[in-house]
Input
Amino acid sequence: MIPCMRLYAYLGQTLAANASAAGNRRLNPYDHWISTYADDGFEGLAATLEALFDRHVSRADGPSFHRLRELYVRAMELELAFFDGWNPRQQSLAHEEL
Output
């Protein structure tokens, strides 16, 4: 969950800042999603989970440390695969068939 939360916090904050700078934030159909992940509370939760994980990892012995590292790397790989799985051409075709 930590890689996902960190990424979504970053995306929400970046999209919110860009939309606010452009002056059209409320016109975005994804404004609710952006607001959710740009929220300071979500950032705080992501930071808290990172700190808990870091504390746990810092206390882990060799085998446990390596297992935690493997799990974190796997979570990152799954996050990347999620975004790699999106194919705009497939999305267009699916909408054309409706």
Q: What stands out?
A: The CA atoms of residues 14 and 80 lie 19 Å apart. The radius of gyration is 18 Å. The first helix runs from residue 2 to 22. The mean pLDDT is 87.
